[in-house]
Amino acid sequence: MGERHIGVVERRARLALRHGLAAGAGAAGPEEVADRLVALHGSDPTTVFLGVGARLTDPAQAVSATERALYEDRTLVRMHGMRDTVFVFPAALTAVVHASTGLAVAARARAKLVRDMAAAGAPDAAWLKEVEESALAALARRGQATAAELAEDEPRLRERFAYAPGKSYEGVHTVSSRLLRLLGVEGKVVRGRPLGSWTSTQFRWALAPAHRELDVADAQRELLGRWLAVCGPATEADLKWWTGWRAAEVRRALEALGARPVSLDEGTGYVVAGDAEPVTAPERPWAALLPALDPTAMGWQQRDWYLAPGLRPALFDRSGNVGPTVWWNGRVVGGWAQRPDGEIVWRLLDAEGLGREAETAVAERAELLRRALGGTRVTPRFRTPLERELAA
Fold first, then answer.
1. Is the pLDDT of residue 1 over 70?
2. Which domain holds residue 366?
3. N or C end of the chain, less CB within 10 A?
4. Cα 312 to chain centroid, rounded
5. What is the average per-residue pLDDT within 124-136?
6. Cβ–Cβ contacts within 10 Å for residue 6, how many?
7. Domain boundary pick from 207, 234, 262
8. Cα–Cα distance between 138 and 303 in angstroms, integer?
9. How many Å apart are CA 162 and CA 180, to the nearest integer?
C-alpha cells in the first residue's frame, strides 16, 4: 500500500483547526495559544500579542493576559530559539529548545564574539568571561535591568570595539550589546518587561529560569514531534528550515519519532505516528487577520499550498519577513495595516472564489482588531510594500 496523499484542501483544514483560527477553535488564554503553536515569533514584540489575540475567544484580553503570562506568572518565556531567532515559548518547553537548538547556536556565537574582539584588538576570552560573571551577578542582585543599568555595576560593559573594519558593514559594537545577546542564546538570560508599553522593542534583562539539562537527540525528537503534531504534514525542507538544523539531525529526529511519510503535491512529507487519518474541514468558513511574522504565515518554507507566489512581492520584505496577512479558509488572500487614526484597512490580492461572505467576515475581523487595539498604534518592525501603502 502506497503513501497516503494529503492534498491542499486537507492541509488547509489542519491549519485552521490546529492553529486555532477556525470558528469555534479559539483558545482561552495565551498559554494555550503558545502550546498549540509551539512557538510565537518574538522578533517584533507586537507579533506575540496580535498573534495571541487572533486566536483567543476574547481578543480584547490579549494584551493584559499575555503581559501577565510573560512578566508575572512567567508561564511564557521570550528567548532565542530556532534559526537564532527570538521566540516566545511555553515555559515548560525552554529546556527542550535550549538543548535541541540553543547549544549549537550558542557555541558558534561565543566563538564569533571572541574572534571579532580579537580582530579589533579588544581583550581576550578570559577578560570576557570575567565581565560576564560580574554582569550576571549584578543582574541577580537587581532582578531585572537594562544594559545601561548593568553597566553602572560593571563599567567594562561599556567598552567598545570595531567590527568588520574596512567592510561595507563595518561598525562599532559595545561589549554589552554583544555579550547580553550571547548570554540570551546560551540560555543564561531572557528578555524581561519592556521599558515602554507592549509595543516597545527595548527590553530589560533577567536571569533565565532554571531548567533541566537534556540530551540533544532526545530534545530534538521532542521538539520536532511537537511541531509536526501542529504543522504536519511538512517536507524535510520545511523541517530543516524551521529548526535551523542540519539535514542529518532532521532525519535522525524523524526516525526516532517514527514519523510516517505521506504524499504531498510538492513531494514527500511527514506526520507524527497516528496522524495520517483524514481531517475534515471546519463546518463554517473563516477569516483571520494575522500580524507580521505570525508563526502560521512563516511556518513552512514551501508555502504555495496556502500563499500564491504572485502575492509574495507585496506581502514580504526583501529579507523574507512576512507582513500582516488576510486569510480566508486556509489561504492568504491579502494584507492589512493600521492607519495613524487607528483605522484597520485591508486589501484583497487574491479574490478568486471570494464573495460577499468573505468580505463581510474580513471586515468583521478588522473591526474586532480595531476595538482590541483601542488607542494603541501598531507599526510592524519589518515593513512590507503593501503594509506601507495601506498605512499611508
1. no
2. 1-74+214-392
3. N
4. 19
5. 94
6. 23
7. 207
8. 46
9. 18
Cα–Cα distance between 85 and 112 in angstroms, integer?
17
Mean pLDDT of 360-365: 96
C-alpha cell at 94: 525552554
Domain assignment present for residue 43? The answer is yes
pLDDT band at 351 (very low <50, low <70, confident <90, very high): confident
Number of domain units in the chain: 2
Round to whole Å and give the CA distance between 327 and 376.
Answer: 23
> Residue 102 domain-assigned?
yes
Asked if 36 and 19 count as a contact pair (C-beta separation under 8 A), the reply is yes
Q: Are residues 113 and 200 in the same domain?
A: yes
In-domain check, residue 59: yes
Q: Give the containing element (helix H, strand E) for 337.
A: strand 331-338
Q: Say if residue 54 is in the same domain as residue 170.
A: no
Q: Taking a C-beta distance cutoff of 8 angstroms, is the pair 321, 383 a contact?
A: no
Model pTM greater than 0.85?
Answer: yes
Cβ pair 161, 172 in contact under 8 A: yes
Say whether both 229 and 123 belong to one domain: no
Sheet with 76-80: strands ordered across? 40-41, 86-90, 76-80
